[in-house]
């Protein structure tokens, strides 16, 4: 038995003890129906656009509602800077432009990517959920590396005021601000999203699942609310809303979107650590 056969046998043995996905029944029916009634081009383009818009605004919805709920205000990070209708309308207008005139053409490109690399769409080729989970985690790692270093470049004094300053119009962010950005930034930082797909994608469903989890992450860190028992914190070294909220408040430091390790390694979180220490001292004095 060669090495490859040993690996395959080991994976199969482990798979026998992994629980089945409880959502596989209704999901299978829906996916088979979609692939029977729509072409691969329609799924990759219009289907991706619909999926993105639906998931983006549904994930943003809880944070939008928080501003009307007094009992949620204790979780708001920058309590002195409430959301305004004017700011939210401004954000929505640029989002619509970005989604339909920048991101939509990129979605059309994903169809050609799947054709070039023979990425399947059929249900029977979908990898097991635990393999898909590992692929998504790999996408997070790749995107995080790309985003950290390019984000630092966008903060350079020669580029900041022309590109990244648009995103920093909101010093106290809210969920929808996640994709509020200059078109150049959307293309530059958005490249990291597709790098993970390039390395790990073995089925079209991964693009949607990866997109879903990336939206959950980026909308969460821009939400402006630090909600207890947030399941996103199950990710190791997860940044979270407080970490990224400080970046918007301070304009520098805390450049990584998902994992803290790059900021810790390069020391770009030192201002955040000082801020947290001062807050802890201040809270201690209040208790005394």
Largest beta-sheet characterization: none
Fraction in beta strands = under 5%
Order of helices and strands: HHHHHHHHHH
Shape: globular
Q: Which segments are poorly predicted (pLDDT under 50) over 5 or more consecutive residues?
A: none
Beta strand count? 0
Through-space gap between termini: 69 Å
Any key phrases for this structure?
about 290 residues; mainly alpha; 10 helices
Q: How would you describe what is shown here?
A:
This protein is mostly helical. It has helices spanning 3-15, 24-37, 40-66, 85-116, 129-154, 183-200, 204-221, 240-250, 261-266, 270-287. Helix 3 (40-66) runs parallel beside helix 7 (204-221). The mean pLDDT is 91.
Give the SSE map.
Elements: H1 3-15, H2 24-37, H3 40-66, H4 85-116, H5 129-154, H6 183-200, H7 204-221, H8 240-250, H9 261-266, H10 270-287
């Amino acid at each position: 038995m060669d090495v490859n056969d040993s690996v395959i046998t080991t994976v199969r043995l482990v798979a026998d003890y992994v629980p089945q996905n409880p959502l596989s029944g209704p999901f299978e029916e829906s996916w088979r129906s979609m692939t029977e009634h729509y072409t691969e081009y329609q799924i990759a383009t219009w289907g991706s656009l619909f999926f993105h818009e639906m998931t983006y605004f549904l994930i943003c919805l809880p944070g939008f509602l928080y501003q009307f709920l007094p009992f949620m205000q204790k979780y708001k990070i920058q309590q002195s800077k409430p959301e305004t209708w004017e700011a939210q309308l401004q954000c929505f207008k640029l989002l619509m432009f970005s989604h339909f005139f920048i991101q939509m053409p990129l979605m059309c490109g994903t169809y050609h990517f799947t054709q070039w690399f023979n990425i399947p769409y059929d249900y029977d080729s979908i990898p097991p959920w635990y393999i898909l989970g590992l692929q998504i985690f790999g996408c997070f790692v790749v995107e995080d590396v790309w985003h950290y270093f390019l984000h630092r470049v966008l903060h350079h004094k020669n580029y900041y005021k022309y590109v990244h300053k648009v995103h920093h119009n909101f010093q106290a962010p809210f969920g929808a601000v996640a994709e509020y950005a200059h078109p150049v930034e959307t293309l530059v930082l958005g490249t990291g999203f597709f790098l993970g797909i390039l390395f790990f994608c073995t089925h079209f469903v991964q693009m949607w699942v990866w997109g879903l989890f990336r939206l959950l992450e980026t909308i969460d860190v821009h939400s402006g609310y630090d909600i207890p028992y947030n399941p996103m914190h199950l990710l190791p070294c997860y940044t979270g809303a407080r970490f990224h909220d400080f970046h918007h408040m301070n304009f520098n430091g805390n450049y990584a979107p998902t994992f803290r390790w790059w900021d810790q390694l390069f020391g770009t979180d030192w201002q955040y650590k000082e801020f947290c220490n001062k807050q802890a001292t201040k809270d201690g004095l209040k208790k005394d």
